[in-house]
TrEMBL record:
The lineage of its organism: Bacteria, Pseudomonadati, Pseudomonadota, Gammaproteobacteria, Oceanospirillales. The gene is atpH. It comes from Candidatus Carsonella ruddii HC isolate Thao2000. This is Putative F0F1-type ATP synthase delta subunit.
Length: 53
């Protein structure tokens, strides 16, 4: 279970890194933060669900 969540987190971090490299415009930073915040909330909920199973 731990290995799965660690792998998932690593994939997510890689995704953020690639996404951040694509967005270098100051206009999109706010949108980017919004997207990250939403994804962190989703992952937190996912982790709770995974831990309960």
């Amino acid at each position: 279970m731990n290995k799965i969540s660690k792998r998932f987190f690593f994939i997510f971090l890689t995704f953020i890194f690639i996404f951040f490299k694509k967005i270098n415009k100051k206009k999109n930073i706010f949108l980017f933060k919004k997207i990250i915040f939403c994804n962190i909330k989703k992952i937190y909920i996912l982790k709770i669900i995974i831990n309960k199973i």
